[in-house]
Design a protein that fits this description.
Length: 135
């Protein structure tokens, strides 16, 4: 489940929007969402927000050709305007430059076939045990 939080300041104009992304909020991602876990991005993101002026300077000075690995990024007013003021975070998130390495699908199918054979053998072994137990 995704949650978005927007902060607005009364008066003035908006010249940029800061986006913050959390993978973990300190709780297990399950139906109840009430089991604490160690991973929690929120404290670091809160600190990032409080230092947003420094982060804007860092963002503005970045090498746009380099990989951006931070969990925060900005969109300026001109970029927002050109996107009809759509503020969906993913629209402005820098894309990963890292190439994904995918396994050969034939190799995956071979593994699945081997697992299927193993399952069939286990099912037959269980049938045999049940037959012997019934007699």
């Amino acid at each position: 489940m995704k949650t978005s939080v927007l902060f607005f300041r009364k008066g003035g104009t908006t010249d940029k929007v800061m986006f913050l992304h959390a993978d973990n909020d300190g709780y297990k991602l399950d139906a109840n969402h009430d089991t604490p876990i160690e991973a929690d991005d929120l404290p670091k993101l809160a600190e990032t927000y409080l230092k947003r002026k420094e982060r804007w300077a860092e963002w503005s000075a970045r090498n746009t050709a380099a990989e951006w690995t931070q969990q925060w990024w900005f969109a300026d007013a001109a970029t927002l305007r050109s996107n009809d003021f759509n503020i969906s975070a993913g629209r402005y998130r820098p894309m990963s430059q890292a190439a994904e390495i995918h396994r050969d699908p034939r190799e995956l199918l071979d593994e699945l076939a081997a697992i299927e054979v193993e399952i069939a053998e286990e099912v037959e072994a269980l049938r045999s045990v049940l037959s012997e137990a019934a007699t």
